Amino acid sequence: MELIAPLSKKEITQRSYDLFRVVMQAPISPPYTQEKKWEASRLALRGAYKCDEFLPSVEDPQEILAFLEHHLEFTGRGGRDHHEPIQNALRALAHSPGPTIEALRRFAPTHPSFVHNICCLFQNDKPPQLCKAALLFLPLIGDRLFDVSHPIMRPGQMMSLCMDLASVVERLEHTRDVQRASLVVLLRMINSPHWRPHIVPENWRLLEYFGSVPDDDISLRSCIDNPELIDAISALKNTDALALWSAVLCWKYEELIPQVQKRLKAVMKENVPGDNRSFLDACLLIINRRLTVVGEALERSTGPAADALETEIDSLRQARVSLVALRVGED
């Protein structure tokens, strides 16, 4: 019976997703009303994505995007709060990022109403699990929201989102998926001259999770390959932000292009004058703190998860070596 139970639950979630697709494709005819269709789709999607153990892969994200857009707009107009259906839709889309990103190319994720309604999900009165689902979804629209020459949000709205995101991450358990999503969003913001001034101190501290982002992540690569970024962060006059970013660059020092290596050395010399090691000590503290966290996680992990943590520990130790090598007077 113990072997049958999980199999039956997996089958239920898959059949619930199949039913959701049937409902979304079904025509409207009396006595089957549009509202009855939405009610049936909500029940089917709940059966498919409420359980954490078995999440079906999304075959057609367009159907779930249509479902999400409808319920976001309905809630945004002051109607019934469809928190759970929205949460289930976001979980489904984040679970299948490849197909979702492809589908988003044919969707309008930066339409003002859609962006506004997504941003509202991060407000303090929203349930934590809904906020988490929205956070895991946000990187999927990051290129449209952050990597643009002309911002689609006003400065006040950008500041509000940065503050709300900081509050959400503070409330959530810092699981690896939360670390990765929040850091990817932060990197997108850091690399944007429009968003960077609105990043609050709590956001910058997320850089301590820099080992949670894969080496080939486009948001990480675009940041560490940007020679102007370290000067832009230095100009913010935020010592913690500069120390955190310097630690990240030291973590990737051997992979940095020569221009970035040169600027990092210059910044270290500017901020570690004479025998004053406070800035260097701050960078080393960040590395050592992360080493402690990852080391404790490794003790509880096995298999691929343990392998990933061991790789991160090796990178952190190399970052520590690089930091020490960047003392004043050394090249």
Structure keywords:
17 helices, single chain
The number of helical segments is: 17
Fraction in helix:
55-70%
Order of helices and strands: HHHHHHHHHHHHHHHHH
Q: Quick one: overall form? A: elongated
- Kindly estimate the percentage of residues that lie in beta strands according to DSSP: under 5%
- Number of β-strand runs: 0
Low-confidence stretches: none
User: Which structural class fits the helix and strand makeup?
Assistant: mainly alpha
Radius of gyration from the alpha-carbon trace, in angstroms = 22 Å
Instruction: Give the CA-CA distance, first to last residue.
Output: 65 Å
For the report, how would you describe the main beta sheet? none
Overall pLDDT score: 85
How would you explain this protein's 3D organization?
- The chain is mainly α and about 325 residues long.
- The protein has a domain at about 230-330.
- Helix content is about 65%, strand content about 0%.
- The protein has helices at about 5-25, 35-50, 60-75, 85-95, 95-105, 110-120, 130-135, 140-145, 155-170, 175-190, 200-205, 220-225, 230-235, 240-250, 260-270, 280-300, 305-325.
- The radius of gyration is 22 Å and the shape is elongated.
Helix and strand arrangement:
Layout: H1 4-25, H2 34-49, H3 61-76, H4 83-95, H5 97-104, H6 112-120, H7 128-137, H8 142-145, H9 155-171, H10 176-190, H11 201-204, H12 218-224, H13 229-234, H14 239-251, H15 258-271, H16 278-299, H17 303-325
Helix pairs in contact: 1-2, 2-4, 3-4, 3-6, 4-7, 7-9, 7-10, 14-16, 14-17, 16-17
